């Protein structure tokens, strides 16, 4: 699928124009000494994140990987402003993130669709909430739904779609906002393998033509290496940054690049870190 051909006439931003360098068009994120604790029923504390610091450059694509329960989703919720950290700060454009922002969108791990609204209305819902709905917004939403294989389902309700189809609609709802910062929590996990690959490549096309700062959580090491500028490997709970890898594959990326020595080396290194975590031999990034 070709995003430019699909959306060029419907997008509120001209996708056919030459894209500005990522650093000139999006917002960066600064995570400073963030920790998060949760109280349990027995009165003890569970530490989800411990002293996490991360500087994300403007327009950068960051992937976060690690074992289940290591705090990846918690970190995204903090960056989004949905959760206040126990300690530390998150800064966006020099301002502290205290609540959800209009220039930040999140695609959740599970569909969060309104059951009483059609799929088209669900995709358009963030624009209505922000008061930014335009006459061309519906056409753009329809083009996004066509991109993810939901053409013809615009008038359906979530209960009439499978779980995977609902998640595709959730991805569209994040993209319709054209955010500066896009937070994606395992967004392709419910998709079949071929559609997941297609969506990954189309996400990269969107990112190159409409530069955004992206934080992308995934359990797929190869997906992280293929998509990201850098891969942040997190330790098991309490979540800390074990290592940050620069991915040196040239852009634009293609699936064939996963067979290149640089990609295979990165995949091996990430696995080594995760296995070292399990054995307790990991050294953390300070």
Automatic annotation (TrEMBL):
Positions of region (Disordered): 1-21
Listed CDD domains: ABC_NrtD_SsuB_transporters
Coiled coil spans: none
A GO MF label: ATP hydrolysis activity
UniProt keyword Transmembrane, yes or no: no
Annotated ranges, domain ABC transporter: 29-261
Comp. bias intervals (Polar residues): 1-12
InterPro entries noted in UniProt: AAA+_ATPase (IPR003593), ABC_transporter-like_ATP-bd (IPR003439), ABC_transporter-like_CS (IPR017871), ABC_transporter_ATP-bind (IPR050166), P-loop_NTPase (IPR027417)
Signal peptide positions (record): none
Keywords of this entry: ATP-binding, Cell membrane, Membrane, Nucleotide-binding, Transport
Family annotation (Pfam families): ABC_tran (PF00005)
Similarity annotation: Belongs to the ABC transporter superfamily.
Record's protein name: ABC transporter ATP-binding protein
Organism: Achromobacter marplatensis
Organism phylogeny: Bacteria, Pseudomonadati, Pseudomonadota, Betaproteobacteria, Burkholderiales
């Amino acid at each position: 699928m070709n995003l430019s051909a699909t959306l060029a006439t419907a997008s509120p931003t001209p996708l056919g124009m030459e894209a500005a360098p990522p650093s000139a068009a999006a917002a960066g994120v600064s995570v400073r000494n963030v920790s998060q604790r949760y109280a349990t029923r027995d009165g003890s504390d569970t530490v989800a994140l411990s002293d996490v610091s991360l500087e994300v450059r403007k327009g950068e694509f960051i992937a976060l990987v690690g074992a289940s329960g290591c705090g990846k989703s918690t970190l995204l919720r903090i960056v989004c402003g949905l959760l206040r950290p126990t300690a530390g700060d998150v800064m966006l454009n020099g301002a502290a993130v205290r609540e959800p922002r209009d220039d930040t969108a999140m695609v959740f791990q599970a569909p969060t669709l309104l059951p009483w609204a059609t799929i088209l209305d669900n995709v358009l819902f963030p624009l209505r909430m922000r008061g930014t709905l335009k006459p061309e917004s519906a056409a753009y939403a329809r083009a996004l739904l066509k991109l993810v294989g939901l053409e013809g389902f615009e008038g359906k309700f979530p209960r009439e779609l499978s779980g995977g189809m609902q998640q595709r609609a959730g991805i569209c709802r994040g993209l319709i906002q054209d955010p500066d910062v896009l937070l994606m929590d395992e967004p392709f996990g419910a998709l079949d393998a071929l559609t997941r690959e297609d969506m990954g490549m189309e996400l990269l096309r969107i990112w190159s033509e409409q530069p955004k700062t992206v934080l992308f959580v995934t359990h797929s090491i190869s997906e992280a290496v293929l998509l990201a500028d850098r891969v942040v490997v997190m330790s098991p709970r309490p979540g800390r940054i074990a290592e940050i890898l620069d991915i040196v594959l040239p852009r634009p990326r293609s699936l064939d690049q996963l067979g290149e020595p640089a990609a295979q080396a990165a995949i091996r290194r990430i696995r080594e870190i995760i296995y070292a975590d399990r054995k307790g031999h990991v050294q953390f990034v300070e």
